[in-house]
């Protein structure tokens, strides 16, 4: 059997599940869950947490999306350089 990363079920901490199987497991395990309601992270639906604010401080998916958004903003506000002949560098002649 090949190496697969394991994750911990948010509904039962004793469940160690292969990450690629986590979405299906969460659906099944949520049906039997009797604890306080968990919120679903909008950056990764497999993340179910009690305190979303605390979770977002360390959620890799959220942190990556912030970086991606910053890059997109930077690219959208970028002014293309102009050559001496008056044509944009990015625009083909």
Automatic annotation (TrEMBL):
Keyword Chloroplast belongs to the record: no
InterPro entries membership: TRM13/UPF0224_CHHC_Znf_dom, UPF0224_FAM112_RNA_Proc, Znf_C2H2_sf
Residues of the CHHC U11-48K-type domain: 6-33
Pfam family, one: zf-U11-48K
Keywords on record: Metal-binding, Zinc, Zinc-finger
GO molecular function, one term: zinc ion binding
GO biological process: copper ion homeostasis
Protein name, entry field: CHHC U11-48K-type domain-containing protein
Organism: Drosophila erecta (Fruit fly)
Gene: Dere\GG24320
